[in-house]
Design brief:
The chain is mainly alpha-helical. Helices cover 69% and strands 2% of the residues.
């Protein structure tokens, strides 16, 4: 075999090796307890420990506000524990199916979709309006206690929403430099023209952006110049894209 022919053969073999399709690698993933909890809680904490901590916070807030009697606290604790037990049943069913198992990509996607509603329940306030705890609370309190709690919750809720609006304004200022008067004026417009969400959580920014998008552009005109108004318009258009998505997460404006 001549040197030239040998070189040609070697080149052909190398080319065949390069262009030959690589064997398909199965993308598999072993679901550990730690990974399952991470998807469920956005961290490594045990979901039961997290719920018990939330319960103690809720009870402490109510107790500090209106000095619960032992029987009242017992009734609220029982309702909350039923909420937790129902949640643990849902989590336990999924955990039993997947933890310790090796899953392909399709199965991983299915599991993630099943866990997400439970994750949102944790993030958006576990003892929210739909919980048994929230439904039992007014029946466990006296009329005077109910009035006190309602007033305090309303104040806390609006303070928290105002803090979120302030963060939104700070973020907007990166592309929209403002004077102090403009900053305070914008915050006042947002407080007066938007409504707080039905639940706070990881989607606060998206909800706020969607609310800002529904404030008419002409309300901002007395406060900003032409160039600034263009930035406001861009922010409003961006927020429009989040309206349906936020609603699909179950987050809606609070009726006041």
């Amino acid at each position: 075999m001549t040197a030239h022919l040998l070189i040609v053969c070697v080149f052909q073999l190398a080319l065949a090796w390069i262009v030959a399709p690589a064997p398909a690698l199965a993308q598999e993933f072993k679901m550990t307890e730690e990974q399952f909890n991470s998807w469920l809680t956005n961290g490594r904490e045990n979901p039961k420990d997290r719920l018990q901590a939330q319960l103690q916070v809720e009870l402490s807030l109510v107790d500090l506000s209106c000095e619960l009697e032992p029987k009242q606290k017992e009734k609220l604790t029982l309702a909350a524990e039923r909420d937790i037990a129902r949640f643990e049943d849902q989590v336990g069913q999924i955990r039993e199916e997947v933890v310790g198992k090796t899953l392909d990509q399709n199965k991983i996607g299915e599991v993630y979709q099943r866990i997400q509603p439970l994750n949102q329940q944790l993030q958006n306030g576990f003892f929210g309006p739909t919980s048994l705890f929230a439904k039992v609370l007014p029946r466990a309190l006296t009329a005077a206690q109910q009035e006190t709690i309602a007033q305090l919750k309303s104040e806390q809720y609006h303070r928290r929403y105002e803090a979120i609006l302030r963060l939104y304004v700070v973020g907007l200022e990166k592309s929209l430099p403002m004077t102090e008067a403009q900053r305070q004026g914008l915050l006042r417009i947002l407080i007066e023209s938007t409504r707080p969400p039905s639940a706070f959580g990881q989607y606060d920014w998206y909800y706020t952006a969607s609310q800002v998008s529904q404030v008419p552009q002409d309300i901002f005109e007395p406060l900003f110049d032409k160039a600034q108004l263009e930035v406001i318009q861009q922010a409003r258009q961006q927020g429009e894209g989040w309206i349906d998505w936020v609603e699909n997460q179950g987050i809606t404006p609070v009726e006041e």
